[in-house]
Write a sequence for this structure.
């Protein structure tokens, strides 16, 4: 017996314990032997652990029990963790003269939960987690008593005390030979099917052309007809099943529109020189304090994980920004200075009355330091305007033209004067700006950090993947420069929008090429210089046509923004 146990990877301990382990391997039913004289009241019961209750398991470790755990207890205390491990106080020793053998059936989910919470895995718990034969408890205990008596290790003094109200019936499954042929692709003779079922120790009865198969409860892996067909294919021989081409309707596998746009976003961000990162969806609630997020902010309403792997992963993220900041910080302390990262992932927001949170696909990016530069190109700062250029490249590549970036304050994570809201179709979809110096200090970042976060689902709603190309124009373009003086509080984007609106179909392109504030401009104002290109596809434009459009633009700017032409 000891040799067989060693061959199975189990260390022999004593004659009684070896018998319980041997029967576990033989019948699949875990057993436990108690020193009967050490049990208070000479009895055992199954109950839940009590708050604050502790016991030493057989491995010598003190275990903290909870009310979610099942324990075997005597009249006073817990003496075993049900289905997992026995207790040290009642173990079998060389001085043991009376033995109580316990054989039980436990709910697999309960044993799995107890084993996980205690970080304690055993041969017993692994079998209970997978499920054992509920009718096999008495058989296993009887077999153990038989072996103990045969080897002269003890005498059986009385019958078993059984608390099971009655045996549970074996399930009966209908097995159709036609279905076997359909699934396996080969006609298995009915005599062969019947023989295979009997070889598995399954009772078989005929019902017309079908078989009614009674499956023993020890085969908990078989509950459906398809499970029986799998057993037939295994024992009939996979090599006897012919190789055939797939039949039936086939569909072309392709990405959804959302997946295609998301992949294109990743490609564009990579082409812009940013490196993709993937961070965990879990985070530490402490990051809300590091980001200076107010206590009443909706971002603090995070989904709490019931069984986190660690304190650092206790809640689901409500924003992508902490992940980028953490990666920037990790690289900075390792002397990496010029950094540009982006991530596409999901944020999670709890929904009142719903079990599952709302998941939102988002894009976040963060840059700091300088661009690498290149041949005849000097490195430049990766600042707000650099990141804004990345955003514009992304949206333009997705054929999204209805967007704007407008100044915004009030976000404590970002610098109050260097932050803007990203508007898509007039609706706020994200934020872009420089991280607040206090937040940068919290993450040990000594340089300016610029970041953006945008709702990618809003981007997908407006994106177009098909570009329409026009033939090259046959007629020349007319270019005009226009410099205006306007209050410096007026965003350049509003001026740009007005010029585009009033320019009509003839205005082909607008470029802001100069911004000036100085002695020649009165206090509180600035000069904006635009280059305008006019072009028609069917004719050469005259000066009169261009001058008329320019006059309309200038008149609209003066009426709306009190703008004046600069000489």
């Amino acid at each position: 017996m000891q040799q067989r146990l060693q061959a199975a990877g189990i260390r022999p301990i004593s004659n009684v314990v070896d018998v319980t382990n041997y029967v576990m391997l033989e019948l699949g039913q875990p057993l436990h032997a108690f020193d009967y004289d050490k049990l208070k009241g000479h009895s055992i019961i199954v109950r839940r652990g009590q708050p604050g209750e502790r016991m030493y398991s057989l491995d010598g470790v003190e275990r903290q029990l909870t009310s979610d755990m099942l324990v075997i207890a005597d009249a006073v205390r817990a003496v075993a963790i049900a289905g997992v491990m026995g207790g040290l106080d009642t173990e079998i020793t060389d001085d043991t003269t009376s033995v109580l053998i316990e054989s039980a059936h436990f709910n697999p989910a309960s044993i799995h939960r107890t084993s996980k919470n205690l970080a304690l895995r055993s041969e017993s718990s692994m079998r209970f987690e997978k499920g054992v034969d509920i009718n096999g408890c008495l058989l296993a205990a009887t077999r153990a008593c038989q072996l103990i008596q045969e080897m002269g290790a003890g005498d059986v003094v009385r019958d078993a005390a059984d608390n099971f109200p009655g045996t549970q019936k074996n399930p009966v499954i209908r097995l159709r030979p036609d279905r076997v042929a359909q699934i396996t692709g080969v006609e298995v003779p009915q005599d062969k099917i019947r023989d295979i079922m009997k070889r598995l120790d399954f009772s078989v009865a005929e019902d017309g052309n079908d078989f009614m198969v009674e499956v023993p409860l020890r085969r908990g892996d078989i509950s459906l007809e398809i499970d029986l067909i799998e057993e037939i294919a295994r024992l009939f021989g996979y090599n006897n099943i012919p190789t055939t081409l797939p039949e039936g309707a086939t569909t072309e596998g392709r990405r959804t529109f959302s997946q295609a746009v998301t992949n294109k976003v990743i490609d564009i961000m990579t082409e812009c020189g940013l490196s993709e990162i993937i961070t965990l969806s879990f985070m530490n609630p402490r990051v809300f304090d590091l980001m200076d997020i107010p206590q009443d902010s909706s971002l603090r309403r995070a989904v709490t994980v019931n069984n986190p792997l660690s304190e650092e992963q206790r809640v689901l993220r409500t924003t992508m920004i902490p992940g980028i900041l953490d990666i920037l910080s990790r690289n900075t302390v390792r002397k990496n200075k010029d950094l540009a990262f982006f991530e596409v992932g999901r944020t999670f927001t709890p929904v009142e009355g719903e079990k599952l949170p709302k998941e939102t696909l988002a894009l976040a990016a963060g840059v700091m330091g300088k661009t690498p530069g290149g041949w005849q190109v000097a490195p430049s700062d990766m600042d707000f305007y650099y990141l804004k250029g990345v955003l514009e490249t992304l949206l333009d590549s997705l054929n999204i033209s209805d967007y704007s970036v407008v100044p915004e304050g009030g976000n404590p994570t970002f610098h109050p004067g260097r932050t803007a809201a990203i508007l898509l179709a007039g609706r706020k979809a994200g934020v872009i700006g420089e991280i607040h110096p206090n937040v940068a200090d919290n993450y040990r970042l000594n340089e300016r950090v610029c970041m953006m976060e945008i709702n990618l689902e809003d981007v997908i709603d407006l994106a177009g993947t098909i570009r329409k190309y026009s033939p090259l124009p046959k007629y020349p373009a007319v270019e005009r420069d226009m410099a205006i003086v306007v209050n410096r509080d007026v965003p350049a984007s509003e001026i740009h929008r007005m010029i585009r609106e009033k320019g009509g179909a003839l205005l082909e392109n607008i470029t802001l090429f100069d911004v000036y504030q100085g002695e020649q401009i009165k206090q509180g104002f600035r000069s904006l210089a635009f280059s305008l290109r006019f072009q028609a596809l069917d004719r050469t434009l005259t000066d009169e046509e261009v001058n008329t459009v320019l006059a309309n633009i200038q008149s609209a700017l003066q009426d709306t923004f009190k703008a004046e032409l600069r000489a």
